[in-house]
Amino acid sequence: MPHAKRTRLLKIYFLLFKRFGHRKWWPGETPFEVMAGAILTQNTNWANVEKAIAELKKRKLLSPIALSSVPNAAVEKAIRSSGYYRQKAERLKGFSRFLCGRYGCDLQKMFSRPAGALRGELLSVKGIGPETADSILLYAAGKPVFVVDAYTKRVFSRAGMIRGDEGYDDVRAFFEKNLPRDSALFNDYHAQIVELGKRFCLKSEPVCWACPVLAECRFGRKRVY
DNA sequence: GTCCAGGGCCTAC
DNA sequence: GTAGGCCATGGA
Question: Which of A91, A109, A150, A170 is most deeply packed, by most CB within 10 A?
């Protein structure tokens, strides 16, 4: 069965799509807003991030030039609702400095670089780890990179498709290896996983009992759920 | 009051 | 190289 994993992954995506519809990610009007959101949403509810982004817009701080030039305190005040606001203000400023220093504040210039090389550069910026880097690559730059998050590990380990103790890059490789390398698919698949996780795969429960999608998936002869 | 959210860094072993 | 502490607000 050389394509068993691929078939399962595509089937799960199809079921998610059927249930939730196209997720239309990433919510954000511009690529820079998407990137800022990727930093602001680290371990934080998206509703809190939306308020922070609205506040940054209101104060005209949502640009690499503005962020890199204003004092930390001004950014902190605007993004307070997103939590970890001191760290995140520093991270937004650091990323903006990188953007303007390395690429003259020109996003298209940055996006024109190969995904692998750009990923390495992003990871060297303090405050940008693997998930944030991949979110930027996929949702702002449109590169075919699969984004892994806590929900991804939780859902697919409970579905028995991964162990759950793998490192970030191992899980990412699992999806990239077993799915067609398509940014539109990667984009919506990750968004679907988040939707599923939020609704049916809570941290505090040992398995996704109520998960309507995984319940329809049969692994081998027996149902997992 | 408790739990959790679309992580990542730093420090100990 | 990895487990554990830390960062912090706001909604359920």
Answer: A91
